TrEMBL record:
Annotated substrate binding sites: 53, 85-86
One of the GO BP terms on file: asparagine metabolic process
Keywords for the protein's UniProt record, in alphabetical order: Hydrolase
Protein name per UniProt: asparaginase
List of catalytic residues: 11, 85
Ranges for domain L-asparaginase N-terminal: 2-178
A single GO molecular function term of this UniProt record: asparaginase activity
The keyword Hydrolase belongs to this UniProt entry's keyword annotation: yes
Catalytic activity: L-asparagine + H2O = L-aspartate + NH4(+)
E.C. designation(s): 3.5.1.1
CDD domains tied to this protein: L-asparaginase_II
Organism listed in the record: Micromonospora inositola
Amino acid sequence: MRIAVLATGGTIASRLDADGDLAVTDTVAELLAGLPLPAGVEVVGFDLSHQPSFTLTLDDMLATVRQVRAKLAEGFSGVVVTHGTDTLEETAYLTGQLTRRDARIVLTGAQRGADEPDSDARRNLTDALQVVATSEPVGVAIVLGGLACAAVEGRKVHTSAISAFSGGSAGTLALVDPEGVLRLSTAVRGGYYATLPLPDRLPRVDLVKLVAGADGTHLRASLDAGAAGIVVEAFGIGNAPPAVADAVREAQKQGVPVAITSRTGAGRVRPIYAGGGADLARAGAIFAGDLTGPQARVALALTLAHEPPGCVPEALRGMAEGRHA
Ligand SMILES: NC(=O)C[C@H](N)C(=O)O
């Protein structure tokens, strides 16, 4: 089985520089040097970029997905992407919606630099190769800290712990250790735009997190900045003060969709409170299921790039509910 390893940068490829700061240094050849490979696996490495993931844009991430699709089209059986963990969930969500749910694609990274004695860099890459090459495909996944979660479910939940990713309510797809891969579940969401050509670029979509006493200032700033869509991390089950609903109405008038998520990080949003979510829904906001703010932001950018304006709400709900385009 031939596996392509696409390196983009991140801590997995970083070492301390002369100032004592972590900086991306390692090439894919250095990442792979001396790495134990699963039996029957041949690996070919490609350097896509050398960036910490906090500098990546959605279009950089789209370029990575383009390379992932290209490698599969060239006949590679699977692809591993090495990536910084800070924004890995965005690239993972994008990849997960733009490729087939059962494709052999794994994204991985590390929490400790490659020159730390207890670095997780080599272990995570070894685990990623095990998962991507396992006999029954696990699907498009994030592998870090000994577990795999679905690419469209994963989110970074710890600043420094080795086990920094969670699959949220969807849980864990598989455990991975030197014994091998132990499958636990199957992803039900993902692959929404797997069969369509990739868009050339993704539109600007902003994410606004609400705090008590918030008004419409930040939504209006996003409109002024030319955002094509806005995601709000609202309170609880999807509530916001009336001033935010006023800003949603303004966005609606300008043809800019606003999606509602919850800043709680788990559970589905529903428009059930008078003066809160019910007013947001009447103002035209789209309730984005249980997507996190960053997931909904990528999902909204994807729907805006693929759909005529009238179909954006339905497509966004479809992605959140695990339907397929
Ligand atoms: N652990 C990491 O990879 C974090 C790093 N700052 C990055 O995202 O590039």
